[in-house]
């Protein structure tokens, strides 16, 4: 296999991976957990820079609920469109929030810094949030990235959520609750970020939504 064929194979895999992960609402962090690989490696898979080994490929397929062939075969070439047709890629516009502040409506004008488009749908409500800081960079969610968030007021333990703590601005952390105790866990390479532990009887905690996708956006 020559260099061009290797690049094409990587791109086909990456294109299928991005499409299926988006359809299944599987995040890069989910793939990191399933394959026990670094977030950098998984990011390279999504961007067509690297190609996983067969055992990793099978774990990815299992996580996505598909066959390996769905990841490695050129799905687009199987059903070519007419020469003058464009592929249908349904998207809808969602607001980009620079921050979420207590005491203001979620989509207050002061919060919205722009708009982006997402393929996520399924009848749910979504918004994008600009990431500030490095408290989740170990998951590949870095400063300046956009995360797509599905509006919901409950999440499962261990899921990455946007959470309002008291009267502060919202924060993004892994969410854990045990009775009246809520732990917001950073996933950072910076040791300065420590778990935040709250007693619901003393501090109100409100889940804004679940992070379902993270991506770098060139400004």
From TrEMBL:
The keyword DNA repair applies. Residues 17-71 form the HTH cro/C1-type domain. One of its GO terms (molecular function) is DNA binding. One of its GO terms (biological process) is SOS response. Coiled coil: none annotated. Keywords: Autocatalytic cleavage, DNA damage, DNA repair, Hydrolase, SOS response. Belongs to the peptidase S24 family. This is HTH cro/C1-type domain-containing protein. It comes from Butyricicoccus porcorum. The lineage of its organism: Bacteria, Bacillati, Bacillota, Clostridia, Eubacteriales.
